[in-house]
Structures are given as structure tokens and as C-alpha cells.
Amino acid sequence: MTAARPTRPSVDQLQERLARRLAADVAERAERVPHDIAERLRVAREQALLRARRQRQAEAQMVWPVRAADGAAVLGAAPAWWVRLGVWLPPAVLLGGLFLIGQVHEEAEIRAAAEVDAALLADDLPPVAFHDPGFVEFLKHPEP
After folding, report:
1. 28 part of a folded domain
2. Which residues contact 44 (CB under 8 A, 6 or more apart)?
3. Domain that residue 116 falls in
4. DSSP secondary-structure letter at 1?
5. Closest CA to 75 of 63, 85, 86
6. Residue 138 CB-density burial (10 A; 0-12 exposed, 13-18 middle, 19+ buried)
7. Which of 60, 67, 111, 120 lies at a C-alpha separation of 20 to 30 Å from 132?
8. 113 in a structural domain
């Protein structure tokens, strides 16, 4: 018979437990606060809520300059050349990168072929070695 292992509570469960304990503690201590302090806290809470409401209203009424650029609505007043640059720059960089990758790959193949050719021309290989299927291994590991 296997003993059931207690499961560990998740982070969300632990946070919920902590929040409940803190809320209960605050509620308990709020009952013991003198009336004048409780009244000052209530007024401060109302003022904070009023400031937050005004801030949300001000943000909602904030006017963002919107203009049309090539059939799309754009926030701000960015110049047309900047928008075009932002559209064409990523594909140009991508194509340039692909071209450079191709060049580096081609150069690596040319160097590898040149190394094989140089080893063939510089070493005294018997003619039979050209027909041997393992002559590339011979070139990689020459005899001392």
C-alpha cells in the first residue's frame, strides 16, 4: 500500500491564503483604530479615488495627433520618408543577410576544394590513390 504524499500548494493558492490572512488582519485592526484616525483614512481614500478618476478622465480625453500615411492611420507626426524607411528596411536587411550567407558558404566550399587540390599537388601520391575510395581520408590524415 502506497502512502499518499501531500501535494504542495501552488503559488496562486499560497498568494490567495496570504491575501486572506492580510485582509482579515487589516479588518481586525481597523475595528481597533480610533474614530478620528479612521475618519482621516476614509477622507484620504476618497481623495485618492478622486485623483485616480481625474487621471483616467484626463488620459481618455488626451488627443493624439493622427494622420494618414499611405492609407494607414499613424499616431504622431512622423515624416513620410521615415515611414517608408520603416517599411523597406527590414526586407532589405533580410535580403542582404541572405546574400552574405550565400557568399560565406560559397567561399568556404572554394577553400575546402583548394585545400584538397593543394594537398594533391604538393604530395607525392601514387596514381592508384586517385582510384582508392578512401583517398580523401588519406589527405585528411597524412603520414608523418
Report:
1. yes
2. none
3. 78-144
4. -
5. 63
6. middle
7. 111
8. yes
